[in-house]
Amino acid sequence: MSRSTAGGNISEARARLLNTATRIFYTEGIHSVGIDRITAEAQVTRATLYRHFAGKEELVLAYLEQADQAIRGQVAAAVASSPSPPDQLRAVARTITDGIQSPGFRGCAFLNAAAEYFDPAHPIHQAVLAHRQWFLNTVTDLLAQTGLAPADAAGRHFVMLRDGAMAAGCLFDPKLISETFLNGVEGMLQASPEDE
């Protein structure tokens, strides 16, 4: 786990390191970026980096943890903003399309990381799998509440639609990809007895 300053506060230098690494990892990839570049752009020394992170792997894990927490927050807010399970699922889908249509969208941080760390035993790959399992469980639970059966198959379908939209969203017209994804989710919900 990453280190923090006394009293549990995250230092300004650690925040700069993590924000810099997040920006560069997301836009350029993880393997293509070295520690020297991150420390130079964050305006910290290597010693400062190693005071907060044991190495690049720990920095990558912190980057993915931050992305995971942001997505969990978006999903929780989407669910809380909607009165019924079908509308909650639609709201979750809209958070995905909001991301796809945002400036600088470069695909899913987790899928991108998995492509660079393909060994299933690697801690970074394991972090990707843990995030994806949480997301699958979350949408499967929402789909079960809509009455769609079998919910586990519908959950896998939703995640595959999302993965396709995230991959295509940075290759083609993001608005068209978003509309296609939302239409796919709506098609799933039309099969739900609660949404009739």
From TrEMBL:
<dbReference type="InterPro" id="IPR009057">
    <property type="entry name" value="Homeodomain-like_sf"/>
</dbReference>
<feature type="domain" description="HTH tetR-type">
    <location>
        <begin position="11"/>
        <end position="71"/>
    </location>
</feature>
<dbReference type="InterPro" id="IPR036271">
    <property type="entry name" value="Tet_transcr_reg_TetR-rel_C_sf"/>
</dbReference>
<keyword id="KW-0238">DNA-binding</keyword>
<dbReference type="InterPro" id="IPR001647">
    <property type="entry name" value="HTH_TetR"/>
</dbReference>
<feature type="DNA-binding region" description="H-T-H motif">
    <location>
        <begin position="34"/>
        <end position="53"/>
    </location>
</feature>
<dbReference type="Pfam" id="PF00440">
    <property type="entry name" value="TetR_N"/>
</dbReference>
<keyword id="KW-0804">Transcription</keyword>
<protein>
    <submittedName>
        <fullName>TetR/AcrR family transcriptional regulator</fullName>
    </submittedName>
</protein>
<keyword id="KW-0805">Transcription regulation</keyword>
